[in-house]
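Worked Example 4.2. Consider the chain below.
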Amino acid sequence: MSDKAKTEDGEKRSLGEAVIEEVKFLLGLMAFLFIFFNFVFGHFKIPSESMQPTLEVGDHLYVNKFAYGFSKHSLIMGMSNLPFLKDGRVFGKMPKRGDVAVFRNPKSGLVMIKRVVGLPGDEIETRAGRLYINGKIVDRILEAEFSYREHRGYVAQVARYREQVPGEKDPHWIYERSDFDRLDNRGVYIVPQEKLFFMGDNRDNSEDSRAPAGPGFVPFDHLIGRAEYMVYSLKKCKTEEGLKCPGRRYFLKL
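Applying the procedure from the previous section yields the following structure tokens:
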């Protein structure tokens, strides 16, 4: 065999080996992403203003799926049909009050994000705009009053309060348009076992567990994960005189 023939055979083998290596790399990457997005983190985009001021329309989140264990509602790409995930959770861990959690609405099947305010056995009530948990009022501190333009174009006037529910490590912020809106006098709700009660931080603009058309009590196995970070947003509001504009947002710990 000539040196030329040997060189051509070597080049063919090298090309074939290179293709095999690339295929192995891509298959390994796909397997990693499959496991990562099923069992570790999920990516979600905020579609509404129900969690303002914590989350704005257009915010992109990374959600920790491992925080509460796994159920058929937290998995993607056909994994929800696994027989051992038909009912309940694997490695289940109950959330804490104050967690911002992603879940599947048990009535509509839609994916939602709200704040956990009620755990199994809790009594939840809103009275004249104030939140009561197990008969005790949750303190709130007024920080500001202002107007802003909603993403649909309407101008809303709100008061921003700092609030901290029992068991929550750090306070969070809520919006209130008034203390006499449609969801400001609801309950008492007694949260059943293996169920959770959710509320939006934009208290008068949230179809949450208080609302007749909301998700109601959410089964524990309908949790998808805990929202950990608001990573980025490509949405930017227009600066207008007299109206608040949140500006650019990225890498915020929730």
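The helical segments are 3-39. The mean pLDDT is 85. Compare this with Example 4.1 before moving on.
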